Fold:
Amino acid sequence: MNAALDLLAAIPYDQILIQTVNGIVTGMILALVASGLTLIFGIMDVVNFAHGELFMLGAYIGVVVLAATGSFWLALVVATLVVALLGAALQIVTLRPLLGRDPLTTILATFGISLVLQNYALWQFGPVARKIQEPFTGGFQLFYLEYPWYRLLIAGLSAVIIGAFWLFLKYGTWGIWIRATTQDRAMAQAMGIPVPWVHTGVFAIGAGMAAASGVLFGPLVGVNHAMGLDWVLKAFIVVVVGGMGNLGGSIAAAIFISLLEAYASIWVSPAQAVIVSFVVLILTLLVRPTGLFVPTPK
Amino acid sequence: MKQRSRKTYWIGFCVVVALLAVAPLVLPEFWRRFLTEILIWGLLAMSSDLLIGYTGMISFGHSAFFGLGMYGAAAALLTVSPPNLWLAIGYGLIAAAGVALFVAYFSTRLRDIYFAITTLIFSQIFYVIIFTWTEVTGGENGLTFRRPALSIPWIYASPFTNETLHWFVLAVVTASYLILRRITQSPFGMVLQSIRENEGRTRAIGYPVERYKVVAVMLSGVFAGLAGVLYALQNRFAAPDFVYFLVSGETVIFNVMGGIGTLVGPLVGAGFFLLLREAFSRFFTEYYLIPVGIIFIAMVIFMPRGLVGFARNWLNR
Structure:
């Protein structure tokens, strides 16, 4: 009895609560990154290895615009638009010629893109991490911590962006085209939907979402050229655990995995906490390779 | 006709090996070292060609096998004294084979991109473990050790010189090439190719596809580990950077540049990539991956069968 009480008392409730908030905040950002990735996969059968680099470039463009204008919100909008345009250009130049070939070749092409973009960023901005100033400071008391409001705002904004995107998919003309293309590419083409441009548009939207999350997340960590790698790996895990091409599943998986990692980092170093998400992935693949958060396929 | 083409093949093979064997005697030190490195990376690329080109599975996890080969060799060289070459190779191969079995068991249940992502994640797991387990692996700094003597048990022993190291690497790579070539032409290799062409039908005929895939990944992992051992011998260190997935990515690049499914192609691709890196490093310093990456993307789009495939088409025209 006493031992059980001791055990209960030994649980660091305050830390767990703090980590829950942290996990949800990171999870929302991750969901924003992963939903672009899963969308691109679901529609184009393209595994976009360069997604993390688009995230990183978004953050860098945010740094540049913020330095020039001083407005965080302007930086967010400009970075999103510029990277979306860049994404469209990349899709037209590299992925469109690969349409209809083995989907595996797109991994190779996007891997090449990621190498180029990453080294371009290193060349252009140097190895020293840059900092994005958050638009406002201040926070509230969470146990022994002064928890910044900004973090909660990021989670909220990510939710708003994902929600708006969902509405767009549901009701917008382009959204309906996108869903039609996902279901049956040939039929969509036959109905007069400009499928190649839908592909370009989807890639641009995914790239823009990655860039937006890059700018939003920038103030929390330094911006450097290698930041994309961690994120693309995490986003892959999320997309597989959530079920490839499944938007809702990706969001649920993003929060689930970020929470697990946050709890794990109470006891081990953050570098080792990553292993938790790896283990989740492996278990998912063994038990339900189609993803944890999708209905059982018949 | 068939007889003649086989004869030309073996003559060509002997000429290339002879040229590579003579090279260290005539080349300056820098290029000799360069050539040895091409052979080692070429072996790594060939090992992954068994999966990419012959079984149709793109592995993004070959850095794990390569790196574990390195660390296995390091373990043997640091714990046993005097350091023994064959023990280093044995340890390296066992480490790589163990990891390969582990990875293969889980990842072969999946196909296509899922396989690629899983192998990538596995290599990152090993990277994180090696990077954070500082007491054993030396963490970020890695391990350094002395090079063992070149020995044939009870017959011959002498320290490696630059030339004998090159010949040793050449001998190992040539032997591995011949073994891999034999594997791909064996009935086993034929089954692998039929898995690539049509997995469902291969299963329907009655082959246990999963078991073939596990063996393929393990064989591939063992040869990748052998490349890791050679690299450790050449450079006298093992470092976590070589477990990082960028090495796997480069391995895939070698394959695609040279031409998958040819065994020779990946070796050519490794040479081509390293030459490009050398050439562009002169102008772009450490940013050489910008032009090399662009060339790589262009090759994926315009030259899907790689340099060797392109040359073959061109010769047959």
